[in-house]
Amino acid sequence: MKSEAFAVKSVEWGEGWIQVKVPLPFSLRWVNSYLIPEINGGYALIDPGLHTAEAKSVWEWAFARYGISTTDVKRIVLTHQHPDHYGLAGWFQERSGAPVLMSALSHEYAVRMWGEDKSMSQAWVRLFARHGLPGDLLTQLEPHLESFVSQVSPQPEVTYLPLEGTISLGGREWEIVHTPGHASGHLCFYNRELRYMLCGDQVLPDITPNVSVIPGDPDRNPLLSFLNSLKRLSRYEVEMAFPGHRNPFPNFAERLMDLNGHHVGRLAELEGWLEQPQQAYALCARMFGKRTQNNIHQLRFAMSETLAHLFYLEEAGRIKSVEHASGILYHRTGGPHSV
Ligand SMILES: [Zn+2]
Ligand SMILES: [Zn+2]
């Protein structure tokens, strides 16, 4: 990512919208938060960012620049529950008293991940162990997952958004579009007059949104959900898409096709490697290379995404898994190749 793109911390858009680039301590660099002026005064705040000192100082800077005070935040709307979007919601709620709106499915994940009984971290270790992750990497996983707790605290009190229907933002009606795949319960918001799509992390320019198998998640085939969500989004005419990362972009329809093509290609590649039985970790190392070596954060995404592809292929009857004492092995069935 070019550094000058991030040197600009905020961008003003039509209708008085303000895009604030809230910094992240990962290679994604920043998350986009959007301030949308409400007709009765104040702002709706979309995806406030991760709870870090650096993020809070950018918010201080942005509020000073635009003459906004924390109590001007009237509603906090979350596209999904990932820490880089959800993390500051509770902190903003404490200071503004604003309701935090998100889907119940998204909130369930947040509770399982960072609630009292943090059972999900151990479930993640068990899942990756069965799929061949070496012991030295497994021991890094649990502390890594738990390191997010402070970055999503305090946890907000949540008001649920339905998976379909409308929400009023900035005096306009926005259609709620349920788009699972990148995250369970992920929502996009579409306005027909402006042809604006707030697309969270379901569709990103330049980079491919992560699609992950999550232990204990009711969705056992998140890649199928992701591809179906791309199809659902292709029904909307979009002039400008406002994503969770990188910058707003106009070529939404083209991007949907690119993302679909990327996964179709990856599925075929993976299937081609399975003449001989292999474990998911070996396939992950082959597919993602260096990213699996020394960065546990990247490795978790790479491993969960490899599993999302393997689960998809197995559901489609193109590969089969066999459980051995040493873990799970996948091999080709020699069935049809088409996706
Ligand atoms: Zn996300
Ligand atoms: Zn994100």
SS-derived structural category = alpha/beta
Would you identify the CATH architecture of the largest domain? 4-Layer Sandwich
Q: Within the largest sheet, what's the order of strands?
A: 1-2-3-4-5-6-7
* Number of H- or I-type helical stretches: 11
End-to-end distance, in Å? Answer: 33 Å
CATH superfamily of the largest domain: Ribonuclease Z/Hydroxyacylglutathione hydrolase-like
Instruction: Supply the CATH class of the largest domain.
Output: Alpha Beta
Integer count of domains? 2
Number of strands: 14
What is the general shape?
globular
Percent in helix: 25-40%
CATH-defined fold name of the largest domain: Metallo-beta-lactamase, Chain A
The helix/strand series, from N terminus to C terminus, equals: HEEEEHEHHEHHHEEEEEHEHHHEE
- Rg measurement, Å: 20 Å
Low-confidence stretches: none
Chemical compounds bound to the protein: zinc ion
Q: Overall mean pLDDT score? A: 93
Strand content: 15-25%
Catalytic activity: 3',5'-cyclic UMP + H2O = UMP + H(+); 3',5'-cyclic CMP + H2O = CMP + H(+)
Protein name: MBL fold metallo-hydrolase
Organism: Paenibacillus roseus
InterPro entries: B_lactamase-like_C, Metallo-B-lactamas, RibonucZ/Hydroxyglut_hydro, Sec-metab_biosynth-thioest, WH-like_DNA-bd_sf
